[in-house]
Amino acid sequence: MTTPDLDLSEILDVAALTEECGQAVRANSGKLLEMRSALLPILRAASTQGRERVKAQLFADGSGIRCAQRLSWLQDRIITIIFDCAATQIYRDAAKIAVSAVGGYGRGTLAPGSDIDLLFVLPAKFTPDMHKAVEFVLYLLWDMGFKVGHATRTIEECIRLSKTDMTIRTAILETRYVCGREELVRELHQRFDHDVTRDTAPEFIAAKLAERDERHRKSGDSRYLVEPNVKEGKGGLRDLQTLFWIAKYKYHVRDAGELVKLGVLSRQELRLFQKADDFLWAVRCHMHFLTGKPEERLSFDLQPEIARSLGYQPRPGLSAVERFMKHYFLVAKDVGDLTRIFCATLEEQQAKAAPVLTAMLGRFANRPRKIPGTIEFIEDRGRIALADKDVFKRDPISIMRFFHVADINGLEFHPDALKIVTRSLSLIDNDFRENEEANRLFLSMLTARRQPGQILRRMNESGVLGRFIPEFGKIVSMMQFNMYHHYTVDEHLIRSVEVLSEIDEGKAEDIHPLAATLMPGVEDRDSLYVAVLLHDIAKGRQEDHSVAGARVARKLCPRLGLSPKQTELVAWLIDEHLTMSMVAQTRDMHDRKTISDFAEKVQSLDRLKMLLILTICDIRAVGPGVWNGWKGQLLRTLYYETELLLSGGFSEVSRKDRAKYAAEQLSKALGDWSDKDRAMYTKLHYEPYLLTVPLEDQVRHAHFIRDADSAEKGLATMVRTHSFHAITEITVLAPDHPRLLSVIAGACAAAGANIADAQIYTTSDGRALDTILVNREFPIDEDEMRRGATISKMIEDVLSGRKRLPEVIATRSKGKKGNKTFPVQPHVTISNTLSNKFTVVEVECLDRIGLLAEVTAVLSDLSLDIQSARITTFGEKVIDTFYVTDLIGQKVTNENRQASIIARLKTVMAGQADEFRDNMPSGIIAQQVQKGPVAQKKVRA
């Protein structure tokens, strides 16, 4: 490998190292183990010092490809010195073999933590000493700590195996001479070109692209995953390497620059290739140096460090790490563009191999034919192609027609046509954007009952969408640095449209029964689709993205052809697109004030329907596992309660009369009980319970409480699973205590259960009937019931004192580091306007094991009675809401007391309340349990 432009003199003094190693070998002549022992510290020190110097040069010039080349050069020198020691001082026959690099190392590039892939090429007639020399080299490299992939073969074996094994064929394709007998490597290259590659390019290309597709599938099949795999992920280094493998195999080139001469890439595209390669190598090298291992996943905890290493600075609306990751995803998009352009040229130049290539690419082997209704485009094997290369130059609006014709005819895109689209983006100017037909065609594609998401993604990947809607262009490849969002903003918006299309086509009834019922009744589909596409378009700005997004909509919608009324509807939906989700997940929907405030904001049933559907699309498109049936149930509850109010269906009967009626209904439902039991167990419940808990659950609870009393159990639990809601319900009956919820929450944390909701009720005989809803873990009910039983036992063990809460929490937390990657400032809000009866305390902070137990314990210490709690997690962040009163049932209105509550909560949220963890309560009701239910006294309220 020649590296004339690299500064290598400071990396390693080759002559001095060679001499030092020679002296060590001669001093231990004839003693093999002693030789290795003498060489090891010398070589290890040289390698360590050399790598540190390479690292310093990486920080100095920032070039990833130069760093990889320097490391490769350093490794070459070390291997050469080891081999020369073996060949000149120990095994004379070793000079007859060749040492070559293969794989990435064969390309003359090496990442700090990468394997060293070697091929030892033997002559046709070899001796045992040659194998011993190979072992000598390998043992020293292993002793130095390198992971070495290796093979020892003759040229004949290499050729024979490469004909049947595509992995071996790819490795030999990149064979590079390192040391030893060079003519063996030259002969291998000649034989490989003559006996293997000739007339087999289509077969190799098909295998490599199929391998790439499978790799993409395993890694998530999206280049917009926010924790990408830099090496194997879509748009990563392996994709660029695949392109070069194909080019090298088909065109016999040794350098990417030769592809320009062959007409495969333009000079601009070559520069794009080189910039992408250099950037990805820089990221990968920094990752390996930072972690000290071959880490390929650009995880959240690495991203800020890499951003700092690469010199990114924050800008208004975007942090340094978000700017770095946006650059990363733009590069990944460039890699996709290059892949498409390369494949287009490849197919064009390989016309005679079309049957193989088209089968490989999943095309239809038809001759080009006219597409009815257009003279600008033709169909070529199931793909839309251009009638001639100047179509867009003559009429730029044809760029939009190109996608529209493909959409209405269900055609794939010819890569050559997409290449011309990408090269014609400058034609999309202000006149194009204001063109009535262009906007009409775009809106038609967006709202079509076909596959709008697929068309939008093609438009985005080709650069058309960002040029046509410049505001969209600003969020292309933009990530949000948190654990909640799995995709870049542009990918999230396109996936949101895909979810809407799924609902619109009636394919999501099992997931969204209410939305599926409402969607056919949505008269203004255009406004809904536009709102879904644009709802996050203002992300990355300093101001609230909902407010800024509404402003963008007011500017853009008239251009798209929407009326003033539609424009205001879209703007309202974008402005409020987070409202329904936040109300459903963080507010008590059994509190009438919650519903009336939300209804006042929505104002009409049409808005309510559209906001529900938009909310579903938004949550579903965040990423895998974010949506579940419980969130769906919360949204449905909020919808139905608000619908009643908007349609005038809310009861005007007094609260007292409605509670009395509910008690009568419960008594009737217990008709097979004795009059005494019916009276006793009906009178156990206060108004909040009777008015909010469904009758079916009241009956179930009554049986549960009576069974516990019959068994004289002061402490009892009951488990029920909800597969559709993805929730497991645990009901706890226990003597009431100010810290009861805190201990239950701690026990759930110790059992590894995430609490989604908590409904807390006190019975008239001083007991607590608390219902805890935890996120489901297992798909099969039997497995989930066993898990629920385990959680219940943990709750009972902690409450009764059989287990100490601090110890079980510590066991659960052992080995788990606190998440310091995402700085979430603790925030506390206290409001007396969100409920007519309760003070609402909302806490927002970084999640951790046992947090809920600590927060609820503090609230109890502050003499606050928790009436209900909503527990919501957004990735690494929690927003927990507590409806509380003081101990006499009144709101907390004193400002000094509110300030004290905020200060205490911020202390525990920041992880500084050590005294609580040291004195975490356990067995708080052990004595009360022994007394039995009759002797209990009401502790809370």
TrEMBL record:
What PANTHER family does this protein's entry cite?
BIFUNCTIONAL URIDYLYLTRANSFERASE/URIDYLYL-REMOVING ENZYME, BIFUNCTIONAL URIDYLYLTRANSFERASE_URIDYLYL-REMOVING ENZYME
Ways its activity is controlled: Uridylyltransferase (UTase) activity is inhibited by glutamine, while glutamine activates uridylyl-removing (UR) activity.
> Which parts of the sequence belong to the HD domain?
489-611
The ACT domain sits at 729-810, 840-920
- Answer yes or no on keyword Nucleotidyltransferase: yes
Record the organism: Ciceribacter ferrooxidans
Q: Which HAMAP family match?
A: PII_uridylyl_transf
Task: Output the GO biological process annotations, alphabetical, semicolon-separated.
Answer: regulation of nitrogen utilization
Tell me which family the UniProt entry assigns to this protein: Belongs to the GlnD family.
* Cofactor(s) the protein needs: Mg(2+)
Q: Where are the transmembrane segments?
A: none
What name appears for this protein in its UniProt entry? Bifunctional uridylyltransferase/uridylyl-removing enzyme
Q: What is known of its domains?
A: Has four distinct domains: an N-terminal nucleotidyltransferase (NT) domain responsible for UTase activity, a central HD domain that encodes UR activity, and two C-terminal ACT domains that seem to have a role in glutamine sensing.
Lineage from the top down? Bacteria, Pseudomonadati, Pseudomonadota, Alphaproteobacteria, Hyphomicrobiales
